[in-house]
Amino acid sequence: MAFWLIKSEPDAFSWDEQVANDVEPWTGVRNHQAKKNLAAMAVGDRAFFYHSNVQRAIVGVVEVVRAAYPDPTAETGAWVCVDVKAVGPMPTPVTLAQIKAEPGLEELALVRQSRLSVCPVSAEHWQELCQMGGWVEQG
DNA sequence: GCCAACGTTGGC
DNA sequence: GCCAACGTTGGC
Asked: Residues in domain EVE (predicted)?
């Protein structure tokens, strides 16, 4: 299983909306690097749900429930999207400031490439970020 | 194919 | 609101 981080501006689409909708198609990605990451996702992969811009924090965890398929919001069919399902909120949102202050997390794609909206996260970093947020895996 | 101009994203 | 990073476009 792989780990990811997906960004959304809460003004456009927030964690609350993700929870309310439960399963949501993650559309609108128009960046080749991000597309590559979407295409690499498999059902069962986990992703952090990150609020960019106004909040700048990891606020929840989602699970990939449908692998990459053509993004219906792209006329040309050249882009892809996945479906993600809300798993649960971060007990304590992990802020970008905390992430940047943490030695060992400076290699995170989120930090190194701030404009990339779909980032890979290593298993080690995933564990560390979960600890920082007080995330407890159930069952 | 290079590079300047411009637009967008996102942190501060 | 400003600016840095980076992607895209278009002239040459």
From this structure: 2-132
